[in-house]
Structures are given as C-alpha cells and as structure tokens.
C-alpha cells in the first residue's frame, strides 16, 4: 500500500526522504485502506507487518489502525527513493536548477539518478534486499516509487515496465504467485 495523499503530492513537490503531512483526502484514503484490510482480512494476524519510517506512512498507519489492530515494524528498506538535491522541489524548480538531468525525461523518469540521489538500480537492489527478508505473507505500507519497484520485481517486470506502473493511493495491491490483484 502507498501512503495517503500529502500536501506536497497536491502541490507537485517531490518528497523522497522528506516528509509532508497528509491532506484531508489523504486521511480519508488511509481510512479506506483500513476498511479494505478489515473487510478482506478481518485481522492482520498471520501476516508480518512492515512499513517505511517516514512520517506520511506513519500517519497513514495511524488512520488504518482505526479499523484493525495494525502495528507494522518500521524498516529503512521501505523508505521512498532518495531524490537527493531534487527533494522538496517542484518540477519547474527542478528544470530551472538541474536542466541537464531533467532534459527529455518523460513523466517521473527524472526521479531516478537525481543529483545526489538513488538510481533505479539502487532502488531495485534495496527492494530486493527487503523482499529477501520476507519469510511469510506480509502487509507493507510504503511509497509510490519503492512500491512500484517491489511490485515489478514480484511480477517479473523489466525496468521499462516497472517505470510504467501506476502508484495509486487508497488501494491495496495484493501480489501472490507472480500475479497482482487490487483491492478497492
């Protein structure tokens, strides 16, 4: 699951490892995640529970907890991509300050390899390390870019396919036996 919408999501400001609080809509999305999990699972017992330590994820978890006893362990392996010097900037600010990095890159491809930040290969390696720690079914709350890389690895996708994955908020991605379902 991805955290709920944040003030910076709404403003088009890149977050990376920085934090921004959830909007009212983001809190509603997080509540919805709790409702979905309660409806589909009843209880998270029988699942490991893990999450990013970044504040927007922790705020999402607090809202999920209103619907079921969900107490994930925080791990840095689930942090969002490190955007380096792009962190906290809007896309126009990035283009102004880092024109060579931004030139000709579609949509969110500029996230990867930002000055002082992580590459797609770095994020894939970190996601693989996290997946290697799993020993049983796991519920995780994280972020858009790390989430789509984890999903892509589990689905056997190449980098180009991973970059095309969507990262919606307010839904639960369920991956089992190399297939993905989305709970809404």
From TrEMBL:
It comes from the Bacteria. Residues 17-28 have a biased composition (Polar residues). Substrate binds at residues 2-9, 56, 91. InterPro entries: His_Pase_superF_clade-1, His_PPase_superfam, PGM_Phosphatase. CDD domains: HP_PGM_like. The active site is at 3 (tele-phosphohistidine intermediate), 80 (proton donor/acceptor). SUPFAM superfamilies: Phosphoglycerate mutase-like. Residues 1-28 are annotated as: Disordered. GO terms for cellular component: cytoplasm. GO terms for molecular function: phosphatase activity. Pfam families: His_Phos_1 (PF00300). PANTHER family: ADENOSYLCOBALAMIN_ALPHA-RIBAZOLE PHOSPHATASE, BROAD-SPECIFICITY PHOSPHATASE YOR283W-RELATED. This is Probable phosphoglycerate mutase. It comes from Stappia indica.
